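We emphasize that the prediction below concerns an isolated chain of 506 residues; any contacts that depend on oligomerization or on bound cofactors are therefore not represented. The input was used exactly as deposited, without trimming of termini.
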Amino acid sequence: MALKSVLQVKDLSKSFGNVDALRKVNLNFFEGEIHAVLGQNGAGKSTLIKLLTGLYETSSASGFLILNGDEIQLDSVSDARQKGIGYVPQEIEIVDTLTVAENIFAGNLPTNNGVFSHNHILKLAQELVDKYELNLPVSDFASSLSTAQRQTTMIARALASNPVILLLDEPTTSLSKEDAQTLAKTMVGLRAKNVTMIYITHRIPEVLNLCDRATVLRDGQVALELAKSDFSTEKIISSMIGKSLNKDNTESYKVISGTNILTLEDIHVPRRGPQSVSLDDVNLTLREGEILGLGGLVGSGRTEVLGVISGRTPLVTGKITLNGEVIVGANPQKMRDKGIIYLTEDRKREGLLFNLNLIKNTTAGSLKLFSKLGILDEGKESEIAVAAMKSLTVKTNSYAAEPSHLSGGNQQKVLLARALISKPKILLLDEPTKGVDVGARQEIYEVIRRIQASGTSVIVVASDLDELLSLANRVVVMAGGKSVDEFERADGDEARILKFGTGVLS
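Result of the prediction step, given as a token string:
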């Protein structure tokens, strides 16, 4: 039986000045399938998403969108939603002080005969979660939800408008492996109910396990289309980077036997909010010139440890020793002055300054290096910032542009360039490749190794265990806010991290 086409993208092209973001893209999404769209940052995924969801008016592009046989024009996000395109953005936007039902209908609260009724909203929300068999307690406050349930609430919000097609943008980026599996079950259940899904992702194993078809974009064009029977990691990655894969010439992992530059002893910090974790009895050391990986599941306390080291999280009990000095009253400025630089996982909210250009973003926090008697030498500032960005191959048409014009991988490299300029003694990296494609990941790995080779000690948090193990000389495993295991890279693997991280071993 022939598959029914739900959405066709025909010869879709869009340019920004002299840059072709999309070039005659043709795609076909069929009823009741999960269709993955992959590609490196800058491949055209974001532009495609913005056109399909109405964030960019389709009149600003050439080509056609055909929904259920009819050509459509999209003028806004609300227009796209009304015409049947549901959208689940990458960032989880949930209000903890509202109920799940209120979050589902946020921005579009239904009324009962023109009158707002909380019971009516609860009834409609319950009918929705029952229809799609979603695991959501609609009357509970959102603050009680797990991460997977918060993501499911975002999906329910999109389903509330009864869409013809559902577009999910990197839905598992912030999820643990277990939460991602829970979300996958939800998506499989939606597919069983004939919901058509476009799945934007960079996680290839999820594509192999979950999706029915896959399309790879490269340089604004369709580079590869695959049915499930033809899926392979090598085909997808080769298509993304435009060349065949070479076998990794992985260097033998070195044991770094330098002196301890940082020690945490018996660290205890209470839980500071619904999304945070308390720390209890955390002990670790960082050696001079090594990369130390913090392993464990999401919610194990890894980010909170970085918060303590960077001075962002006040210490309750325990001791921090830096270069033989016991640190009292740690705060961000004090720890920065001592050479500790922290790169947050949320580069958009806490890292980049979107009202400033790339040069100013790169030099933020290091203006003393370019100032004399309080007067900023802008020529020197620009020279050093541009040199730092060029050394990391930041791809941009202009260093005077704002970071919003960059892909996620290039945004991350701007933050790494900022860190390089400050010449840190210790660099703290929280999910340094979050939302970054395969090609840019490899570049970022090389940057981190260059930083290590310069003598800087690095602590890295990564949910991708392959990534963590490929970078780290040594790994400390976190679970339930405690440090529960430690091993040299040659003595452990992904299974060891998961066994200690899930409590199988202790």
